Amino acid sequence: MVIKPTAKDILIVTDVQHDFLPGGALAVPDGDAVIAPIMALAEAFDHVILTQDWHPREHISFASRHGKNPFETIGLDSGEQVLWPDHCIQGTHGARIADSLDIPKAQLIIRKGHHPAIDSYSAFMEADRRTPTGLAGYLSERGLKRVFCAGLATDFCVAWTALDACEAGFETSVIEDACRAIDTGGSLARAWADMAAAGVRRVMSSAIV
Ligand code: VGL
Ligand code: ZN
User: Fold this and answer.
1) Does the beta carbon of 84 lie inside 6 Å of ligand 1?
2) Is 15 a residue of the active site?
3) CA atoms within 13 A on the CB side of 2
4) Nearest alpha carbon, ligand 1 atom 3
5) How confident is the prediction along the chain (209 residues), in pLDDT tens digits per residue?
6) Ligand 1 atom with least separation from CA of 88
């Protein structure tokens, strides 16, 4: 199947930031492999937006705040929370969109995870499942109907964004080779299963021209 993006389609590029790339605070294995395919995809879309994980220094998702080790989990009001190394702290180099990701046409950068006591993987909704970011309204007001997701990490911010896009009524695809995963505690297999069950499509960037 060949997909030709139309004026009603948007590419959402998730969290391609220094801290998620090799050498970063929460480096996603092979994370820098997403940059070339994403830049090629961006050429094919009229509409591209970026997301940026953007935490205050004392963020609730940081293991350091709980006296625990990164990748341990704890129970929060919002459910089970994986604890992370301190990452994407507002204003730091690690939080910057990767210098090598050159997408001048990107129309919006949505920052998420700025509430100290709530994590936010999804570009649409904080992890409390009640606090919207405004992205669904932005897409709807602009008449955009189909969402294509790429970036980091497949099993957290990309998956949660895709699931919420689907739930908000957008036809949603994840572009598999333009994503890379953290994969902790079976998270990647679970994310693909959840996305398949929700009706998120799984495509390769070679199908998009
Ligand atoms: C992410 C863990 C913590 C992501 C963000 O971008 O997938 N993962 N914060
Ligand atoms: Zn984060």
Assistant:
1) yes
2) yes
3) 3
4) 84
5) 899 999 999 999 999 999 999 999 999 999 999 999 999 999 999 999 999 999 999 999 999 999 999 999 999 887 889 999 999 999 999 999 999 999 999 999 999 999 999 989 999 998 888 899 999 999 999 999 999 999 999 999 999 999 999 999 999 999 999 999 999 999 999 999 999 999 999 999 999 98
6) 9
Cis, peptide link before residue 136, omega less than 30° from 0: no
3-class secondary structure, 125:
strand
* Residue in 88, 149, 157, 179 annotated catalytic: 157
> The pTM is what?
0.97
Q: What is the DSSP string of 140-180?
A: HHTT--EEEEEEE-IIIIIHHHHHHHHHTT-EEEEEEEEEE
Nearest C-alpha to atom 8 of ligand 1 is from which residue? 156
The residues that bridge with 173 in the sheet, in sequence order, are: 148, 201
Beta strands in 21-170 (DSSP E): 47-53, 73-76, 79-82, 108-112, 146-152
- In single-letter form, the type of residue at position 119 comes to D
Catalytic residue among 15, 19, 32, 86: 15
The closest of 161, 192, 203, 178 to 4, measured between CA atoms, is 203
Specify the length of the chain in residues.
209
Catalytic status, residue 157: yes
